[in-house]
Amino acid sequence: MAETRKGRNGSLGAKLRSLLPEPRLLVILLVCITTISAILVYFHLVLERTIVVDAQTGAFEIELEAELAGKVFRNVWICEKREDGAASETVAQGPIGCPSRTHQLVGPEEMVVPTLPVGSELEFTAQPGLLRIDVVSLPERYSDTDVGRLEGGALALVGRDALEAFGTLALSGTAKIGALFSETDRVSTASGSYQIRGYTPVGLISGEMRELRSGQLLGGARVRFVKDGDETATAHIAVTLAEPERSLMRVTAISGHATSNIAVRYYFTEEVIIRPSFFDALIRDPAVQLFAMIFGAIAGYGWLKRLSRGTRATQDR
């Protein structure tokens, strides 16, 4: 009996050993899995890329991370705090609304060169014949300065002449392009596109970046750059008014060269994070494409050769 059991155990062990790969193959398999996992994690969490968004929108907001200074605005209406603090009813004055209880409307000023510090929160709103820049908040240390008088107020460019003289406004900060679905008085994104550029495997060696992923933004999109943890990332923005008679700005935003991604939200939907994958980089790698062509040609040649041999064998019969 003991010998029988021993024989059964031996045969069972032999079967189990036959099912397992050889030690060398097992080591190679583990190395391959570890390497692929490391590459995927590195690409997802470490590898830097650059995102470009180009949108036609009537609204966006930004918290400045670089001072806005040196930009000349012409024919500007200014809604600013009253110096004497005189109280009256809140009414709409002139071409734009301005809360007269705490603010006053001044203008139009022929030329204004505002200086807005780092940490300022601004809202841009475009309407036909109007561009309004609301100064939502300023850093507390500026509350008793001339700049602080703009807090809660706005700068407004009114009329075709003012808008045609706008030129380009460069900004840097954490931005959200498009309006919230609750902001029905502001025009959200009408159209746009995005492009994510990064390194392919060969690009890591040569330092060349390629387009990894791109797509279109539909009407109503609200877009921002995000870091890991859902924190809004820095965007470098250029604002232009290509067609002053339309209620749209052209906003071109470029992310910092980092591990940021793009977040898009449409009306009444959850925000969607768009990021490139390692396989996006792999299929766009020129070396991989070249190898695929070579292997495809070899495989095609082998198939044609086998087909030719089969045809000859059939004819010989």
Topology:
Elements: H1 2-19, H2 23-45, E1 49-57, E2 59-64, E3 73-81, E4 91-93, E5 96-98, E6 103-112, E7 121-127, E8 130-137, E9 154-158, H3 160-164, E10 168-177, E11 191-199, H4 203-206, E12 209-217, E13 222-226, E14 234-240, E15 249-255, E16 261-265, E17 272-274, H5 278-283, H6 286-316
Antiparallel strand pairs: 1-11, 1-15, 2-7, 2-10, 3-6, 3-9, 4-5, 7-8, 8-9, 10-14, 11-12, 13-16, 14-15, 16-17
Largest sheet: 12 strands, antiparallel
Structural class: alpha+beta
Mean pLDDT: 79
Number of domains: 1
Indicate the percent of residues in helices.
25-40%
C-alpha Rg (nearest Å):
31 Å
- Binned strand content: 35-45%
Are there runs of 5+ residues with pLDDT below 50, and where?
Answer: 1-8, 87-92
Question: Number of DSSP helices?
Answer: 6
Strand order of the largest sheet: 6-3-9-8-7-2-10-14-15-1-11-12
- Using the alpha-carbon principal axes, give the shape: elongated
Number of strands: 17
* SSE succession: HHEEEEEEEEEHEEHEEEEEEHH
Short description:
By secondary structure, the chain is α+β, with helices and mostly antiparallel strands. The two termini are 62 Å apart.
Report on the structure:
This protein has 317 residues and is an alpha+beta fold. The protein has one domain (49-283). The protein contains 6 helices and 17 strands. The protein has helices spanning 2-19, 23-45, 160-164, 203-206, 278-283, 286-316, and strands at 49-57, 59-64, 73-81, 91-93, 96-98, 103-112, 121-127, 130-137, 154-158, 168-177, 191-199, 209-217, 222-226, 234-240, 249-255, 261-265, 272-274. A 12-stranded antiparallel sheet has the order 6-3-9-8-7-2-10-14-15-1-11-12. A hairpin with a 2-residue loop joins strand 7 (121-127) and strand 8 (130-137). The longest helix is centred in the last third of the chain and has 31 residues, at 286-316. It is elongated and about 105 Å long. It starts with a helix and ends with a helix. Residues 1-8 and 87-92 have low confidence and may be disordered.
